[in-house]
Amino acid sequence: MTSVLRTRAVHAGRDDLTDLGLHVAPLDFSTTYPSRDSAEEARRIDEFTSGGNVTGIYGRIGNPTVERFEQALAELEGFEHGVAFASGMAAISACLLSAVAQGKRHVVGVRPMYGSTDHLLTSGLLGTEVTWVAPEDVAGEIRPDTGLVFVETPANPTLTELDIAALASACGEVPLLVDNTFATPVLQRPGRLGARIVLHSATKFLGGHGDVMGGVVACDAEEAARLRQIRFATGGVLHPLAGYLLLRGLATLPLRVTAASATAATLAERLASHPAVRTVHYPKLGGPLVAFELTGDPHALIGAVRLITPAVSLGSVDTLIQHPASLTHRVVPAADREEAGITASLIRLSAGLEDVEDLWHDLDQALKAC
Questions:
Q1: CB-side exposure of 117: number of CA atoms within 13 Å?
Q2: Which of 19, 48, 101, 154 is the most buried (most CB within 10 A)?
Q3: Given 104, 114, 196, 231, which residue is catalytic?
Q4: pTM, to two decimals
Q5: For residue range 351-368, what is the model confidence (pLDDT) as tens digits?
Q6: 19 is catalytic
Q7: What is the dihedral of CA 217, 312, 290, 260, to 10 degrees?
Q8: DSSP designation for 58
Q9: Active-site residue 179, yes or no?
Q10: What are phi and psi of 347, to 5 degrees?
Q11: In whole angstroms, what is the distance from residue 283 CA to residue 197 CA?
């Protein structure tokens, strides 16, 4: 984490507040914006349909509070534009629909990835067709109708890491989409390595407190224009209060990710020498996520924790633990789960901001139940 990122996380999306005489960003709940000049409104709607970023007409077109969050996240990821959605899956759906709208329905994907993403791609619900490949085989599977190469790194839930620069080179002219939810711009910025689209489930680390749901895409102006039009047409807009909370969450993102990463590294080291643990997966990149495989019953572990929260999701101030094969990746066929390394004994833990000794005490006593 650079000092510049830490500073910009606090100030991005807020640089004009002093000139406005404000200390915190305003929260605008308006669903519509009155105007006596209908001709000007018509011009602005034409501007939007031509790819412009317009607010102040109707809440489904745009909201000024949400725009602040979009601008801030785009800056932290090193892109021109950000487009926010009601959830991470809404953001993913919009990216797939954007490719389909351009006549590019084929997606090349690298497993593992989040279970709902895997299911959406495999099911073809949005008119896409997916080819699952190993990272080194991406270039050989690209076709004339390939619209995206879609990856997560570190991957959910095994924390497998991919070489983003090598993948971007293999993609050629096809956009590489990287889900950067686990790393956040604190630990990696895929755009600097050649990714053309970077996506977050903002519900996780960007919000950081388990009380807001959202998704966001960082990209160039051309892709942003398509995504805004899809968002307008499909209605997957981010609520203004969610935009406000996510902007607030960005201010502490570097501090939270850094602190949780230190805790996760300590837990990973201790788990590696525990007799009830067969294997520990922890990224070279670091980060707040740890995955580990047990020698005993994973369900017994989940039932035995007392301080740690047994729940899906991640990136909150409290530590969360879950069994991917039963929950987040249940929708993925068992054979595909196993092939991607999502075994029946795998546990995923998202470190929070509790004292590391308290967390280890809880984990240690729960491991005795396995």
A1: 30
A2: 154
A3: 114
A4: 0.95
A5: 999 999 999 999 999 999
A6: no
A7: 70
A8: B
A9: yes
A10: -120, 140
A11: 22
